[in-house]
Design a protein that fits this description.
The structure holds 2 protein chains of 2 kinds. By secondary structure, chain A is an all-alpha fold. Chain A has 13 helices and no strands. In chain A, helix 3 packs parallel to helix 5 and helix 3 runs antiparallel to helix 6.
């Protein structure tokens, strides 16, 4: 079985999936730590539904999906963040209202045009094994940009995640960094949607951060462990998908959820043993 | 260093501080006293730009390093935040145009933690007692080696030894860096002689 899997890894389309998928998984995991700690985790889910609606509209209008969806998703990310900051409406309510409308709009547009064809299905559930070289180049470029942003602004993002008011007292431009978080979230969703699908991409943001939170107590350690968990879950998901002939995106989510459950059970067992 | 002219501060139309004026020079020390709700913390927040000014103006010399110690309640929601004490104290060395910490920053943070006798550097804020948390917030501000230090009830929750460390360290900062200090306090048994007391 393992030999077959290693043989499977030799195929170009599998290598493309591994390169693009693991890069996006790491970016989503690192960003997820910030979003979860700032209680913005739902933004990822809301944006992915907006991205699906945009891609459906692009499909109906015969336009390139990513080029059409990018400005819409980036604008939506800023809009949701702005509404959440202003607290005129609770952040979760704003996300639920905007994203469910977007999803409904996407379904209507799709029904009125070509219906749920393979292209629309691909946006919903991803098509990781159908990535071409262009997809890989885009994933490398966007992931490189996101990782560079994280390295350069790591200390500031940490302070802003910890306490925005304290960050302001240090003279940091909190609005700028909030905008940066919104932009990177939109980019991760856009890149990840092709790989994982609009309905599954938010799990790449949430699960590694949740698992890492159970294992580490410092911010730096949580970021590093989340990235590692994302890589392990991604590889495990692809392996499960190959062995049991299951959809890759869904298998990656199940691997993430499984790893999270294993850590919880292991920690609780350890507590019982120590008592 | 700091010049406050006819300042009025408040929330949603309700004025808390009205037409307050004072000046604080380098190395100076001003106490801010008053009853609960009289606007002592609001004044510090106004100086930091965290509260909107209703009337008047606040002038602060450009480019100076400002450090702030809030009341413990200000960071209560962060008690379960996954950050080590070491990481929290090092935040004090952050400046608007500084992206990375250098060895001097790490040394300054270590010195402040040693001085405040903070030992469990890998613990989280929520695992500490009230007094230990206060030491962490003080170490974070003092390691900045600030030109202007804003303290909101710095001794609240500190034991006798903690207070002694605080006064000694504050005196050292004022001698070495000519730090100006604006301090909200209810404590009338202080080892410090203020240049002025503002009673709100």
């Amino acid at each position: 079985m393992l030999n077959n899997f290693f043989e499977f890894l030799n195929y170009d389309f599998v290598q493309r999936a591994f390169i693009a998928g693991s890069l996006v998984a790491v970016c989503a995991a690192v960003l997820g730590v910030i979003l979860i700690l700032k209680r913005y985790a739902l933004i990822g889910h809301g944006l992915s539904e907006i991205a699906f609606a945009s891609c459906s509209a692009a499909n109906a209008l015969n336009l390139p999906p990513l080029i059409f969806a990018a400005p819409v998703v980036i604008f939506a990310a800023f809009l949701i963040l702005f509404i959440s900051i202003k607290r005129r409406v609770g952040g979760d309510i704003a996300i639920a209202a905007v994203s469910s409308c977007a999803l409904a709009l996407g379904v209507i547009i799709t029904s009125l045009s070509s219906g749920f064809n393979s292209s629309v299905y691909g946006y919903m559930f991803g098509s990781i094994l159908a990535l071409d070289n262009q997809d890989v180049i885009l994933a490398i470029a966007l992931s490189g940009f996101i990782i560079l942003i994280f390295i350069i602004f790591y200390n500031r993002l940490f302070i802003i995640t910890y306490n925005e008011e304290y960050a302001r007292s240090l003279g940091l431009n909190v609005n700028f960094y909030q905008g940066l978080i919104a932009l990177t979230t939109a980019l991760v969703i856009l890149t990840g949607m092709r790989i994982m699908g609009a309905l599954l991409i938010s799990s790449l943001i949430i699960f590694p951060a949740l698992t890492a939170r159970k294992l580490a107590s410092s911010f730096r350690a949580i970021i590093l462990i989340a990235a590692l968990v994302a890589l392990i879950s991604f590889a495990a998901g692809i392996f499960i998908s190959f062995i049991y002939n299951l959809p890759a995106g869904a298998s990656i989510v199940i691997a993430n959820a499984g790893l999270f459950m294993i850590i919880i059970i292991f920690k609780n067992l350890l507590k019982v043993i120590c008592i | 260093m700091l010049c406050v002219n006819n300042l009025s501060l408040g929330y949603s139309g309700h004025i808390i501080i009205e037409e307050l004026s004072f000046e604080l020079a380098s190395g100076g020390l001003i106490f801010v006293t008053g009853a609960n709700g009289s606007g002592k913390s609001t004044l510090l927040r106004g100086i930091l730009g965290l509260t909107k000014i209703l009337l008047g103006e606040i002038k602060i010399n450009k480019g100076i390093k400002i450090a702030y110690v809030p009341q413990a309640e200000a960071e209560r929601t962060e008690y379960n935040f996954p950050a080590s004490i070491r990481e929290i104290v090092l935040m004090g060395r952050q400046r608007p145009f500084k992206l990375f910490y250098n060895s001097r920053d790490v040394q300054a943070a270590s010195y402040a933690m040693t001085r405040f006798e903070i030992n469990n550097l890998d613990a989280q804020l929520g695992q500490l007692s009230g007094g230990q948390m206060r030491r962490v917030l003080l170490a974070r501000a003092f390691c900045a080696e600030p030109d202007l230090l804003l303290l909101d009830e710095p001794c609240a929750g500190l034991d006798a030894s903690g207070r002694e460390i605080f006064y000694d360290y504050l005196n050292d900062l004022r001698l070495k860096y000519n730090t100006a200090v604006l301090m909200v306090t209810h404590d009338d048994n202080l080892n410090l002689k203020p240049d002025k007391i503002i009673n709100l």
